[in-house]
């Protein structure tokens, strides 16, 4: 069995991770004390992917929880599932990062890094065949961004042949509480280009829009957003946790989703999404799931994916669904939105199917897309970043922690290069279209000359 080590960094990462472990523990029939219950063998078969077997038949999450301040970790210890975690996997710093990327990357986070790596090594030693690492963090704060990016590079240096998969919460000015979030986000994205193999980007602005407009929650709380992210994570990891008709792992996912090394930033989506009032009046079908997956309102990014090109996609279906019907619906979507898919990537939609639905639903689907439209998300962050950096606002807080001002310019250049690389994929698509049109014209002219 190929195991995964989960690492949660910062307050947001630990809160999302806490909800993720609650959801998958319920799906795998693990109670709050870590004991397996029930008679079904399917939830038990692949428990070793995310859980270690402890004494007295106790299953312990293979997780490392770290933060530079103790508040969020103490709340997890006192929560309903707090007893399920190994106490040695909690790594707590002396003081917080103060929403400062440099403080998490160079000073406070660097001092705690040895303890985090030691806890990670203990988890790796319990694995028979390590598949990779799953990192949960927010790139807007100080710990999740600074310490998280440092941890990525440490993992890549020590475990070079293993996959580093991140679930990164992207900040938004509309729902922001910290003025320096653009600094932290751009600096972290620059490190993620080489520090991660797969980065699943979850836009805070899109989460609020989904909760408010689709789920009809008047005042979305952080718990609502965390639940939405955790449900999506549970859907993405379904094919790792259950045996199914078509399954994949982290390495296969990277191979099928990344046409170029740097283009490994994905946008997730989930279906069905409906308010509690309306879900009782509508029956969910395979057609509904497929149409919702490609709907911008169900994707967790505040831009329209149809403005770019889908390079690659992965759809994970859960429940009793027909493989033939899924293929037909996906083919119909591709034919209908032909201009939204890159023509130079054949068979660019990968599917995985699991017969076991999530709790409370009969059918569900999770979507991961590698789309060139993600450049609009990067441009939004870069615009906010430049507006402050041009005035050198708040720079002294970063340079005071040992950071060089040239790193800000280098991060700007790296994100610009990434955006240009995504744009180049669109230009290639357009040129292919033009070449095909010219070839068709030449064929028509030749045929008309022959007829004449």
From TrEMBL:
Protein source organism: Chironomus riparius
Names of required cofactors: Mg(2+)
One Pfam family linked to the record: Tubulin_C
Annotated ranges, domain Tubulin/FtsZ GTPase: 46-244
Higher taxonomy: Eukaryota, Metazoa, Ecdysozoa, Arthropoda, Hexapoda
Protein name listed in UniProt: Tubulin beta chain
Keyword terms, alphabetized: Cytoplasm, Cytoskeleton, GTP-binding, Magnesium, Metal-binding, Microtubule, Nucleotide-binding
Subunit structure: Dimer of alpha and beta chains. A typical microtubule is a hollow water-filled tube with an outer diameter of 25 nm and an inner diameter of 15 nM. Alpha-beta heterodimers associate head-to-tail to form protofilaments running lengthwise along the microtubule wall with the beta-tubulin subunit facing the microtubule plus end conferring a structural polarity. Microtubules usually have 13 protofilaments but different protofilament numbers can be found in some organisms and specialized cells.
Similarity annotation: Belongs to the tubulin family.
GO biological process, one term: microtubule-based process
Signal peptide annotation: none
Cell compartment(s), UniProt: Cytoplasm, Cytoskeleton
Functional summary from the UniProt entry: Tubulin is the major constituent of microtubules, a cylinder consisting of laterally associated linear protofilaments composed of alpha- and beta-tubulin heterodimers. Microtubules grow by the addition of GTP-tubulin dimers to the microtubule end, where a stabilizing cap forms. Below the cap, tubulin dimers are in GDP-bound state, owing to GTPase activity of alpha-tubulin.
Gene3D superfamilies per record: Helix hairpin bin (1.10.287.600), Tubulin/FtsZ, C-terminal domain (3.30.1330.20), Tubulin/FtsZ, GTPase domain (3.40.50.1440)
Cellular component GO terms held in the UniProt record: microtubule
Domain Tubulin/FtsZ 2-layer sandwich: 246-383
Molecular function (Gene Ontology), one example: structural constituent of cytoskeleton
């Amino acid at each position: 069995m190929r195991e995964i080590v989960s690492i949660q960094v910062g307050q947001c990462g630990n809160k999302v991770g806490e909800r993720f472990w609650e959801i998958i523990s319920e799906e795998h029939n693990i109670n709050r004390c870590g004991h397996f219950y029930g008679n079904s063998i399917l939830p038990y078969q692949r428990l070793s992917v995310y859980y270690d077997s402890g004494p007295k038949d106790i299953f312990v999450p293979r997780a490392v929880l770290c933060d530079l301040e103790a508040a969020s970790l103490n709340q997890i210890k006192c929560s309903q599932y707090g007893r399920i975690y190994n106490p040695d996997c909690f790594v707590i710093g002396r003081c917080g990062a103060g929403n400062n990327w440099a403080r998490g990357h160079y000073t406070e986070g660097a001092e705690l890094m040895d303890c985090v790596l030691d806890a990670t090594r203990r988890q790796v030693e319990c694995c028979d065949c390590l598949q990779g690492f799953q990192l949960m963090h927010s790139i807007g704060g100080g710990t999740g961004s600074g310490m998280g990016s440092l941890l990525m590079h440490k993992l890549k240096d020590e475990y070079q042949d293993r996959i580093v998969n991140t679930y990164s919460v992207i900040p938004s000015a509309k729902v922001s509480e910290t003025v320096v979030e653009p600094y932290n986000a751009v600096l972290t994205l620059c490190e993620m280009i080489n520090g991660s193999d797969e980065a699943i980007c979850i836009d805070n602005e899109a989460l609020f829009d989904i909760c408010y407009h689709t789920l009809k929650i008047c005042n979305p709380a952080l718990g609502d957003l965390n639940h939405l992210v955790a449900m999506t994570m549970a859907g993405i990891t379904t094919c790792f946790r259950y045996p199914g008709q078509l399954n994949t792992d982290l390495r296969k996912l990277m191979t099928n989703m990344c046409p170029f090394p740097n283009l490994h930033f994905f946008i997730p989506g989930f279906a069905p999404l409906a308010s509690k009032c309306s879900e009782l009046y509508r029956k969910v079908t395979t057609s509904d799931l497929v149409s919702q997956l490609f709907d911008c309102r169900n994707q967790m990014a505040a831009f329209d994916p149809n403005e770019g090109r889908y390079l690659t996609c992965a759809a994970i279906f859960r429940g009793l669904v027909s493989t033939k019907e899924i293929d037909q619906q996906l083919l119909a979507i591709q034919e209908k939105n032909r201009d939204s898919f890159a023509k130079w990537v054949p068979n660019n939609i990968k599917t995985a199917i699991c017969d076991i639905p999530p709790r409370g639903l009969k059918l569900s689907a999770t979507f991961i897309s590698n789309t060139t439209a993600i450049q609009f998300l990067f441009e939004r962050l870069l615009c906010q970043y430049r507006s402050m950096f041009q005035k050198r606002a708040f720079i002294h807080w970063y340079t005071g922690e040992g950071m060089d001002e040239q790193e800000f310019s280098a991060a700007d250049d790296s994100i610009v290069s990434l955006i240009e690389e995504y744009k180049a994929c669109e230009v290639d698509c357009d040129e292919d279209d033009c070449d095909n049109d010219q070839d068709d014209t030449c064929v028509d002219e030749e045929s008309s000359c022959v007829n004449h």
